[in-house]
Amino acid sequence: xxxxxxxxxxxxxxxxxxxxxxxxxxxxxxxxxxxxxxxxxxxxxxxxxxxxxxxxxxxxxxxxxxxxxxxxxxxxxxxxxxxxxxxxxxxxxxxxxxxxxxxxxxxxxxxxxxxxxxxxxxxxxxxxxxxxxxxxxxxxxxxxxxxxxxxxxxxxxxxxxxxxxxxxxxxxxxxxxxxxxxxxxxxxxxxxxxxxxxxxxxxxxxxxxxxxxxxxxxxxxxxxxxxxxxxxxxxxxxxxxxxxxxxxxxxxxxxxxxxxxxxxxxxxxxxxxxxxxxxxxxxxxxxxxxxxxxxxxxxxxxxxxxxxxxxxxxxxxxxxxxxxxxxxxxxxxxxxxxxxxxxxxxxxxxxxxxxxxxxxxxxxxxxxxxxxxxxxxxxxxxxxxxxxxxxxxxxxxxxxxxxxxxxxxxxxxxxxxxxxxxxxxxxxxxxxxxxxxxxxxxxxxxxxxxxxxxxxxxxxxxxxxxxxxxxxxxxxxxxxxxxxxxxxxxxxxxxxxxxxxxxxxxxxxxxxxxxxxxxxxxxxxxxxxxxxxxxxxxxxxxxxxxxxxxxxxxxxxxxxxxxxxxxxxxxxxxxxxxxxxxxxxxxxxxxxxxxxxxxxxxxxxxxxxxxxxxxxxxxxxxxxxxxxxxxxxxxxxxxxxxxxxxxxxxxxxxxxxxxxxxxxxxxxxxxxxxxxxxxxxxxxxxxxxxxxxxxxxxxxxxxxxxxxxxxxxxxxxxxxxxxxxxxxxxxxxxxxxxxxxxxxxxxxxxxxxxxxxxxxxxxxxxxxxxxxxxxxxxxxxxxxxxxxxxxxxxxxxxxxxxxxxxxxxxxxxxxxxxxxxxxxxxxxxxxxxxxxxxxxxxxxxxxxxxxxxxxxxxxxxxxxxxxxxxxxxxxxxxxxxxxxxxxxxxxxxxxxxxxxxxxxxxxxxxxxxxxxxxxxxxxxxxxxxxxxxxxxxxxxxxxxxxxxxxxxxxxxxxxxxxxxxxxxxxxxxxxxxxxxxxxxxxxxxxxxxxxxxxxxxxxxxxxxxxxxxxxxxxxxxxxxxxxxxxxxxxxxxxxxxxxxxxxxxxxxxxxxxxxxxxxxxxxxxxxxxxxxxxxxxxxxxxxxxxxxxxxxxxxxxxxxxxxxxxxxxxxxxxxxxxxxxxxxxxxxxxxxxxxxxxxxxxxxxxxxxxxxxxxxxxxxxxxxxxxxxxxxxxxxxxxxxxxxxxxxxxxxxxxxxxxxxxxxxxxxxxxxxxxxxxxxxxxxxxxxxxxxxxxxxx
Length: 1242
Prior knowledge:
Blueprint: E1 27-28, E2 33-37, E3 47-52, H1 65-68, H2 80-88, E4 92-97, H3 114-132, E5 138-143, H4 145-162, H5 167-176, E6 177-183, H6 202-208, H7 210-226, E7 233-239, E8 243-245, E9 249-251, H8 255-258, E10 263-267, H9 283-305, H10 317-330, E11 333-337, H11 344-355, E12 361-365, H12 375-383, E13 387-388, E14 391-392, H13 400-404, E15 412-416, H14 422-435, E16 441-446, H15 449-455, E17 460-463, H16 469-480, H17 491-501, H18 505-515, H19 521-534, H20 540-553, H21 558-571, H22 587-597, H23 601-610, E18 615-620, E19 626-631, H24 634-647, H25 666-669, H26 672-678, E20 682-687, H27 700-707, E21 716-721, E22 734-736, E23 743-747, E24 755-757, E25 769-771, E26 780-784, E27 800-804, E28 824-828, E29 834-835, E30 848-852, E31 856-858, E32 871-875, E33 893-897, H28 905-910, E34 916-920, E35 939-942, E36 961-964, E37 970-971, E38 983-988, E39 996-997, E40 1006-1011, H29 1019-1027, E41 1033-1038, E42 1055-1060, E43 1078-1083, E44 1102-1106, E45 1126-1130, E46 1150-1154, E47 1173-1177, E48 1197-1199, E49 1220-1222
Parallel strand pairs: 3-4, 3-5, 5-6, 6-7, 7-10, 11-16, 11-17, 12-15, 15-16, 20-21, 21-23, 22-25, 23-26, 24-25, 26-27, 27-28, 28-30, 29-31, 30-32, 32-33, 33-34, 34-35, 35-36, 36-38, 37-39, 38-40, 40-41, 41-42, 42-43, 43-44, 44-45, 45-46, 46-47, 47-48, 48-49
Antiparallel strand pairs: 1-2, 2-4, 8-9, 12-13, 13-14, 18-19
Helix pairs in contact: 3-4, 4-5, 4-7, 10-11, 14-15, 16-17, 16-18, 17-19, 18-20, 19-20, 20-24, 21-22, 21-23, 21-24
């Protein structure tokens, strides 16, 4: 701000004001806050928007400026934040801030300066947010002087935080701010003030010296914005017109003073009308609306990915600020090292939560050391945890291999927590190298500093230590006395506890929360004594576990203790080594099981949460059902596993087996092994054919007869029985399963001779019978490959029933209607025909029903009584049954194959809650206009002979995926309304079908089209190429290569897949595709010079060529594709030569040659120093490998299956990184070389 700017304080400004609303009609929340709008209590607010008014001038009609400043210039003169914003943002709480801004000093007004205003408002904001939502995101809107108040408020909060005076509250407030919107705020000060004749107030005095002080204020605020952790969005709106003043000339806040922030523009308005839009189309309103929408999107991204962190953190705020403001700006890799329990994971989560919305791809892998396997297997599991723009990638159809190519050149924030294995470090380096994006960041934690350096030589390592005594005491007392300070009489014992905890935040939290409910001093006095005893334990980890166990020992009953042990040893989310059938048994199933065994399961879980022995996250799964996840700190989980081991509770023993030549007799069963059986809580049991019974034949029933009575504690079990015979003693006998079972998965693979019945004994003369009659406590049952499934009615506690590939007894389905607790039912491939009984309508609690590939002969009218259904999938049923679905108004997902429904008009009128709809109905030739009622629909799949879509399709504004399997004649004009459409799959067949586009196409990110029967490009594709230039993923399946010509103008393509079934070659369409990274071409006609088309495509990273074609040799020019990272050649039946120039592909990481008649690999193969995976499989003519293969220093996986190799080159022993060597089906390879044992990583 220079001396050229001259601003006058106005004496008077006339304006006609509407009488509505009056100040009295707006609710006053406190001295300084007035509520413009608050959502209904049933729908909690998700955003706070605060409005700060400008100066209040004597004689003006801008009295009550917290209201009058925000009136529109329309005829109604609405207070537009109160009227318009709630219409566009019904979940936002909108507050007007009122403060003393009068320029003339009187007995009651104009007596406060800017510092006092900032201090007072900060206390008001703390009160309002503590009462109504501390962590709710905030947008601050200021007009003129109000913008100065906002900046002073932030500086005040920052100063208080640094001085630790209410610091955590200040930090939470500053963290919550997402954006600022400044209406003509003079950021750089004011000069040449002409005051009213009367005595000026402190504000006016402050304005006189603002020029000298404003630079300091502006620089301090700018530092918060640019260099601190607060990465706020700032928008400025300036005034283009001068403001006339009575007898004083004019003034205007210049652009130089008001320009500040990420975005700025001026509007045709003076200083007082710049914040008074005429309607919703005014730029004065539209830019604020756009800003709020952007904030909401970012908040949704943050919330969708947000990780659970302790509610109280002490001693880490400064560190998080430093990492965000400095280290992550200066370093691509940042690592935290320190002992377990010092808070490495907590700090990493806090940082992740703050920055995740700023990156396109994000991933937090907690305790990566638990992920085992080869590097490829680990990489696949890491990919399953990746998020893309706030959505988990595992919900997409992309495979891991295909998926990783999406992150190339994209911003990514990846966190590997608790690195222990060199494979994790190598994988991180590989991901970072292939990503190649300077804006990407990688955050690491480990107890081993060297492991961090293994990830990257230039990693910036930050050591974390225990909390000092002051911070440790503050953290402990915050948990132990959340509402008030500790009594003086407790000071001594508190200090002893803090010292005994050794500064570990986890121990301080657990003991603090335990003692919070213990007012007796004698209970407190016991803790220091116990902590001192723990110090005698030499092992550091066991010492920590012993301290944590003090809280476990004080749990009130065995029920809650056993629940904790079940969680720590079995139901924990991120355990990767449990048997496959247990993977789906998580927190929801645990709660169902405990509802049978515990008196108050929910209260017990709440108690574990209150003690910090457990954290529970609650969300929705991909089908919209309530979903729980259990989370335990590593030390807490290991402590629980140690306790379970000491107390004899056994979980998920890999397999129950006995020596093949020694059948277990009663003495053995009653031995120590028998004792172990009695202690088993969760078990995966496989009874295999190698077991030899005393009768000289294999018999699983003999095993079960001996073992079952000993499994007295078993609650969770998978049972796989694989036998070929049944002994005479066991034939026709019934073998009840253990009565204590709560969760059971029973699989009888490849068998036809075992029956599963409940109730009466069903006799099968070929085998014994397993009975579920005694399992009255079962809450989840999965049955696979069972024969003669009978009555299930005794399973009255059953909540989930899944039946796969079973045969059923007559009238078995009648018992389904008696399972009154059933919530989920899945029936897959049942062999015998059956009819659903009338009693099926009694399952009023049923929420999920899937019937797939079954012979359903009758569906009763009572079916319509299943009003709780949320997911209904009826597909490939044999029988033309009419399904009464109109009454299912809570239905969110509907997938059906049904030939009897001809018109879904009424269905579309009623099922307005649907977000997923898949129709495979031959009887439907037209979709009714009522389809437009399904405004919440996100995914629509139509496999029906529908030729025209209704114009109401454009009402589906939330549609993200659209699949049309049958050829259509036209798309409606409203199609362009589908702005959220991400994936479009179209199918065209029959030459002569004319498809027209009546208007512009929606800009989908992903497009999949199938064209059959055409000898030319369909009309629709000619239109398509002009309207879909922003498409990034294109998949085309066609009969003639000429069809692919439409691709040439899709200049933003990143992934292209073309499959041509005919004999026509694909033309040269690649020269404009400069952004293409991945090409998959499957064609029966490829030219030898095909590779030459790719020259100059520097973004191309992955090429896959497949097809029985005439391609005999790759062009030598392939060596010019220096950026190529993956090359796959598959089923090229004439390819017999791979050129020596292959060795020039120095960036190549994967090379796959499958089912090609090549006789050798080039000697230059050894030059591929980056190659990690080499597959040369089923190349029958390949008899030797070049010796240079031993030079592949980075090679980790080598697949040679199906080749004609007679021997392996000795140089392979030099491959020190090799983890996988696959030589199956190499019939000429008779022996393995002696050096094979030298490959220590194999």
